Amino acid sequence: MRANSMTSDSGAPLPPRPAMGRRTMLAALAAIGGGMSCARAASPVVPPGPDAIAAQWAIFRAQYFRPDGRIVDTGNNGQSHSEGQGYGMLFAVAAGDLQSFEVMWNWARTTLQHTKDKLFSWRFLPDHDPAVPDTNNATDGDLLIALALGRAGVRWGRTDLVHDAIAIYRDVLKHMTLQVGGYRVLLPGATGFVTPDVVTLNLSYYIMPALLQALELTADRAWRTIMHDGMRIILQARFGQWRLPADWVAMDRHTQVFSIAKGWPPRFSYDAIRVPLYLYWAHMLTPRLQADYARFWNHFGADGLPAWVDLTTGARSPYNAPPGYLAVAQCTGLASVAELPTLDHSPDYYSAALTLLVYIARAEEQAK
Length: 368
Prior knowledge:
The chain is mainly alpha-helical.
């Protein structure tokens, strides 16, 4: 919805949006890295519409949604995460499934949301006592839930959901951002990522559609700075022969130099695969960035895409990427023509989630 103000079904006003829309935002960011023009992968494949999203959501819901509202990560022993709740809620909004959305949101806020702030514990262990042993948050989960709430509030005219989103965004801004030299960075979580010398970042936590919505709903210009600086980091923190982001990136607090973070495999894989997806979804995938992704995807091709590549040695995984990774490649530069994978071919929750995100991003591009 493009209007600067909205009302609910009862006539109560929703919070006003600033006049700056997405395209104006991108123009304001255009000086970074050669421009924020939308670099779309050339493909004759017809983008999926609402019916396709609803059909894929039905598959996702049948496999990963539990009656209490919990989204189950089948690749991690049936755990649940704030990230998964955010994805599930987003998918339900896109499919128009208010009932499932409300059950998922109720589970997230009663099981994972903190009492001292509006952020969420990152993991739920169904066979552990307590089931939430670690109250540290994951900023991507917080942002995904806020994005879903904001979209739900607009779709269903619910001021309460919009206000819930705004409260989460305000606490992310308050607790999860840090000024490091000339950058305002987005921390992955409250604890464990900052030392006197190094800040550890996860670039896939820069969920650009969520950050754009944060700016729209709160009118706080700090979100513009976070996106601006996030794009600066994404453009600089690229490694190896393919010039790709690592799953985890270290930022020297004294020099602001970026390197592959120690303590994690030096790979472009499970986390970093989302970086080009979120840029594509937000129309922020620059030609400069897309060229490197396309070079990587097309070197291996659709039938040989690796699940990970070592950014220090160039070694690839001995097995191919799951369908969700292929879906991301298809919308960010893979030249081969193919229909998007369907979720009934996904081996686990995460691959299914990536695929359904691509369905949504493509459908929104079609609807513009």
